[in-house]
Write a structure and sequence with these properties.
Blueprint (H helix, E strand, L loop, with lengths): L1 H12 L2 E7 L15 H11 L4 E6 L10 H7 L4 E4 L23 H10 L2 H9 L4 E8 L6 E3 L13 E3 L2 H9 L3 E3 L3 H9 L5 E2 L4 H7 L7 E3 L9 E7 H6 L2 H36 L3 E3 L3 H21 L1 H23 L1 H9 L4
Amino acid sequence: MASLAAPAVARAQQTFSWKMTNAYGPGAPFYVTGPGSPTYFCDLVKQMSGGRLTIQHFAAGELIPALEGFDACSAGTVEMNAANSYFWAGKVPAAQFFTTVPFGLNFQGQNAWIYHGGGLALWEELYKPFNLVPMPMGNTGVQMTGWFRKPIEKIEDFKGLKMRIPGLAGKVYAQLGVDVKLLPGGEIFPALERGVIDAAEFVGPYQDRRLGLQKAAKYYYTTGWHEPNNVTELTINQAAWDSLPDDLKAIVRTAAAACNTISHTWCEATNAEALDDLVKNQGVIAGPLPKEVVEGLRATTKTTLDGLAASDPKIKKVYDAFLAFKEKHDKWAGVSEAVFQEQIRVGGV
């Protein structure tokens, strides 16, 4: 009996030392450090595993450039990478749907789709040819539309703007005549300050203030149509994942799920003070986009996403699944969150 159990015991005691790269630069709150961040995840896994799985974290530029983590993890150069799936649109166009969808689902809805609505299985299927295992590891919640050097009063005001905007929203803006730029976080402020771009979105008040974007533009729109949530993606090299015993796999999944919630609640706890400071003390003009502009963006989003689905069967498969889940979830959200926001939260106590 003891001899039969020995291999399992030996495997359970095996230790693993991995590397994780990151698309974001050193010291970035949420994306690198702080509650629910990738470094928090690495520490959590070490503690939960009793040191059997240790993960050395490298921010962007410390081991590889910012947006090369997908390839490095796919090739097995590193075992893990933290980023957002829409950065890989050029390699895997359908991946964008696993970060966020314009006019899509909020934090609760996106996680419901991923964890319980078939989203994770689709994500795994999409990444399997690249030898990658994906899962969510964070979420900012709803993001701000972004910073503009001039006010946006009508849909035509977007035409000709040079704007930093990733993901599916960038495709929508491009249809409206925006010159879309994909810049890492650290390059946004200098580009906006020098007029290389006219507008930019990053995350939300706390993160945006840290980058100093309020010093380069003053119009800050609050309507997060483009990113009603934003998933931090953890990818794991398939061979490395297969080498882990089941208990360490469970620890990785559990730690990632914990960080998904902890990171989101950290954003919820920090953004209010930052927005208040930006408006009261730093001269920022914050408010929602005009209703007519939002409706124009909604119509353009549908045309854009329908066109993308028609051009790529993998996009169509993911998009159709997303829409089917959203239709069901919207019915519940309409009698739960929507009513709470409209009737309960606004009135206070």
